[in-house]
Design a protein that fits this description.
This protein has 191 residues and is α+β, with helices and mostly antiparallel strands. The protein contains five helices and six strands, in the order αααββββββαα. It has one domain. Strands 1-4 form a two-stranded antiparallel sheet. The chain has a two-stranded antiparallel ribbon with strand order 2-3. A hairpin with a 4-residue loop joins β5 and β6.
Amino acid sequence: METLDRVASVSSYTPTVTYPGNGLGSALETIGAVIASGVGTRVFWVATGGYDTHSSQTPNGGFYAGLMGTLGGVLAAFYTDLANQGLLSSTLVLQYSEFARRIDENGSQGTDHGAAGVMLALGGEVQGGLYGTAPNLNPFAGNPTLENSGRDVTYGIDFRSVYARVLDNWLGANSLSVLGGDYRVPSLSFV
């Protein structure tokens, strides 16, 4: 019954910031409400779409820039809301995509799907910084950080290594049994 009372309190949640008025903003505001209510859920998953663009990815006003602005605004609101409530140290946000982008333009002011991408970890206990090696984007012959004739970045950290770190060091699970292999990388110490 106590849990049901906490779930009911989600609808009366008053955030400490104004979330952007879009679907992602509403989703993270709801998650903030659930976290603040103390229901006890440890993992939430939110999907947002529209990123599979192949044109108009210009940094100054293109559609893709708008998507990145939306994502940044929502994450900033969520981060600030949880920080204001003293909940940030017990929260970890992991942002990822199922595809990456090539480094060369495709002819329509856009990029096509690529081999390696970026993951973002956000939270009060996150040890910030760049993990892995920044690629050299110069497409010289034999560049070890590029593949596909210099059009794609070669991934340096397997995404399962990030999951392993979260499972072992954040959720207290056993990554070997969950992932079916050993993807642990000791130097990947963001949490």
